[in-house]
Amino acid sequence: MKVLVIGGGAREHALCRSLSLDPDVNALYCAPGNAGIAEVAELRPVDALDGAAVARLATELGADLVVVGPEAPLVAGVSDAVRAAGIPVFGPSAQAAQLEGSKAFAKDVMAAADVPTARSYVCTTPEEVDTALDAFGAPYVVKDDGLAAGKGVVVTEDRAAARAHALGCDRVVIEEYLDGPEVSLFAITDGVTVIPLQPAQDFKRALDGDEGPNTGGMGAYSPLPWADPKLVDEVMESVLQPTVDELRHRGTPFSGLLYAGLAITSRGVRVIEFNARFGDPETQVVLARLRTPLAGVLLNAANGTLDTQPPLRWSADAAVTVVIASHNYPETPRTGDPIEGLAEVAAEDGPDAYVLHAGTRREGAAVVSAGGRVLSVTATGSDLAQAREKAYKAVARIRLDGSQHRTDIAAKAAEGR
Ligand code: AMP
Ligand code: GLY
Question: Within 13 A of 208's CA, how many CA atoms are on the CB side?
């Protein structure tokens, strides 16, 4: 099978790594990719937001499957263009991707499908904003309606700050605060059949102890030893299957990866958000544990034959990933700094620990930072404590001027807290 992956972050590196280990994959391409992905896939330049260009590239390469990684191309209709060219694609249509592209649309789907989520108001005027803020009280949760790379959400006790964020957006969703640990649960679907993956937890805040601003995600781990073993079944029944069914009934079937961001509250599971693609950095730990070769699963989803997919097999190992971000992330990340220590990790810590590249590019013989999140250092071990130890040992070998990472990824879970 020839596979083309669209995107260039650590999620796409994780996808390409798994696909490169799949015996059914005999050619692997990534566009545009990054310096790390270049080691497992052939890179091609492309404007990932240009559906016609992506479809042309896939045709040229004779791709049997296109996997779209990030949300922006999905919302821009890249899957539709590839599908129209007659090539199977893993990733929803632009219309179905509105589940991520518009928080108001997601709320509407959830209401229709009776999926538990925070009560909310969609606001477009200062008066509506004030009414909504007062209806829920502190802590205030204000979300930009459109795509914002995980940074459009403000959760604050400060009413003035909440109001200011709301007034800076064209349209906002203001909602009830959900208290409780967060879980990311991914499901692969062809629009009818839904297959859940293993749950993971992401660390959204920039600093240790969940302090600092929201980011795209600073680390993740899987499995979740503290979670109810029935959690996946419960979310399948109350969230994933009803959402997939609702979108199909609307005539906009969702095929690809449905990401449920959940809060485990005292009153039960609630959806915080949906995404229409693999999560980053959760994918790094989920795929580290998946034993079933990936390409066939994604192709079954793309072809509408997921009902023929044998049950997925999982490793009993635990996985931890730690994101190394550039100086000043998430505000105004500095790029172009040389990264050292990559070869040492490969030589000393592999194969259980490895570096997935997020924002990197090659400059002559050097690899330099090229984004806010730069690397996603991933490790597996017999339990979370061991996976954590291996991941941080590898992190310590990496030298990137001004970089930052959290030191507490999976710490509580590893200690059984
Ligand atoms: P989102 O982009 O919707 O995932 O929001 C980013 C982060 O903001 C989430 O991962 C949560 O940590 C937080 N958040 C979003 N909605 C809520 C809510 N209703 N209550 C509490 N925290 C929230
Ligand atoms: N890790 C959060 C996300 O992928 O949206």
Answer: 7
